[in-house]
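Re: that chain you flagged

S.,

Sorry for the slow reply, it's been a week of failed gels. I finally had a moment to sit down with the sequence you sent. For the record, here it is as I used it:
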Amino acid sequence: MARIRVDQPTALSDQALEIVLEGFAADATVEVVASRRDFMNNGWRAWARFRADADGRVDLSTAQPLVGTYSDPSAMGLFWSMQLTEPRAEGDPERDITGAIEVHLAARGGGEAEATVRRIFCAPGVTDRWLDDGGNVGLLFLPPSAGPHPAVIVLSGSSGGINLPTAALLASRGFAALALGYFNMPGLPPTLDAIPLEYFAAAIAALHRQPEAGAGPLAAMGISRGGELALLLGATYPEIGAVVATVPSGVVHGGLTRPRGPAWTLRGEPVDWLQRDNACTDLSLVENQERRVATTPLFESSLRDAEAVARSMIPVECIQGPVLLISGRDDRMWPSTAMAELSLRRLREHGHPHAVEHLAYDGAGHLIHPPFAPTTRRYQKHGVLGTEFDYGGGPAANAHACADSWPKVLDFLGTALRTT
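Prediction finished late last night. Pasting the structure tokens below so you have them in one place:
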């Protein structure tokens, strides 16, 4: 009898699966369709056709697709190559992590079989509670055991809000993870403009007061503008003992809605930023783009002002621990590889005594996150600005960057926080 065998029918969303088709006709052409609805009820679909072997078997980890939404063997190809087929709601479909996402698998050809896979963000026993201490707003995720646990502050990018999936997965892997909001949430500023760094100092102190987090060094982990922020916090506050910065910037940029003003302040004064009195910024590079705006050329023009770069550089040599940088070489949102290299060179020039690594992925764009979510949406509407941006990268390259970097992030955090 034909069947779809899945080694983990319920598993964390960052867990790769072994999926094998068995009992189909020998040498049959078998089509497999994967479909799901996300937490916003948007419909997604992927498919591929395979040639079964002489035993009527197809192992998705090694089988070459004849045709489909992905082209090379990939155990999780039917997951990351899903395409949006029924758009019903705008926004980030993974922001709500309650319950599970169910993926339906159906195989036809030389037999018929179906299976359902449940993808979850929180391991059994993971708990969460709002941390509203001294004006800080965030959701603290805790592993099932009593702790204390190594602690990570998880920072969102320029869309604001809080990064729930990453924090929940970190807690599922043994970390106390605070998904910290700093704008675009109730009780917080609406945009990324003139945010006091003291807000984050208070969040660090509040996290240290939680008995499950302990009193040791924390890690700061962020993506995009959150990656810039993670590097800046590490350079400013010695309590940060490790930094993970994904598609980051090694220089400080201006505000989100007012780029000629500061994004950050410290002790009431602006933290100097690249766009201030920049002699090379060429706004025409984006003003002439009618839709699906690629902003990397604009940022590259600002980086040509050597004096502005020098005064806005983040003093990453002050970070009291190891640094992991992650970037995509085809990032169309901003030149994250080049800007991560600015930090890498500065760390090496200053003889940084801790481990430093830069994972730069060929063909990948701006959207590098925990693995196996769909990577097919290159163009997305920004959560604050409303502009449809070109984030760059191809689905397969983005999927590789996500799958390769995430276990390295977990190893990095485990080593950095458990040995400090």
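What I noticed first: The longest helix spans residues 395-418.

Talk soon,
D.
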